Amino acid sequence: MLDSSNDSIQGRAFLLGDDVNTDLNCSGKYLPGKDEAYIAAQAFEAVAPGFAAGFRSGGVIVAGKHFGINSSREQAVHILRRMGVAAIVAPSFGRQFFRNAINNGLPVLECDTRGIADGEALLLDLGGQVLTVAGQQITRLLPALPTAIRAILREGGLIPFLAKYPNWELPA
User: Fold this and answer.
1) Which residue, 50, 106, 129, 130, is most buried by CB atoms nearer than 10 A?
2) HSE-up (13 A, CA, CB side) for residue 127
3) What residues make up the domain containing 63?
4) pTM to 2 decimal places
C-alpha cells in the first residue's frame, strides 16, 4: 500500500529477468489444492531458485520486460501480496496482470530497470514520478498514474476503495 502522506514506496530491489509469466509465481500445478502460503514459498523457483526464501516483505521486484505475461490468473497477484511485495518495476507488463495488480492494490510501474542491482535501496515517488536508487546516480522517470489509480492503490485495492468511496468520490 502507498504511503498516503506522499504517495511513495521505499524498499530493497529483488531482481528477476525478462518474460516472467504468471505461471512462474503462481503455478497452475498448485491450483487448486494448495494454500497461498505454500504457493508463495515456491514462487519464481523455476527462474530464480531461492527467490521466495530470500525475499523480504516490503521489497520491490525489479524485473525485465513483459512481467506478468501469460494469463489473467488473479491468484498471481494474491501470491505477490502474500509475499509482501511492495511494488513491481519493469519496462513492460502483461496487460491483464497490470489491471489485476491495480485492482488488488499492488503498484506496478513501467520504467527502465537497467543498472539497478539486487538489494539496492529504492525510493518510488509516484507523485513526483521518479524512481531513485540510493547510493547510485540513478533516477528514472515513472509514468504518471491517474488520480483514480493512485486513490485505489492508497486504499489497498479496488474493493476497499469502493467500500470507502461507493460513489467514486475521489479524495481531495
Assistant:
1) 106
2) 10
3) 8-164
4) 0.91
126 inside domain:
yes
Q: Residues 39-91: pLDDT tens digits?
A: 888 888 888 999 999 999 999 999 999 999 876 778 889 889 999 999 999 99
Closest CA relative to residue 7, chosen from 160, 146, 167, 165: 146
Number of domains in the chain: 1
103 part of a folded domain: yes
- Using alpha carbons only, what angle is made at residue 72 by residues 69 and 75, rounded to the nearest 5 degrees? 105
Give 137's pLDDT tier (boundaries 50, 70, 90).
Answer: confident
41's grid cell? 514459498
Which amino acid appears at position 56 of this protein? R
| Strand order across the 87-90 sheet | 108-110, 87-90, 60-62, 8-15, 121-125, 130-133, 138-141
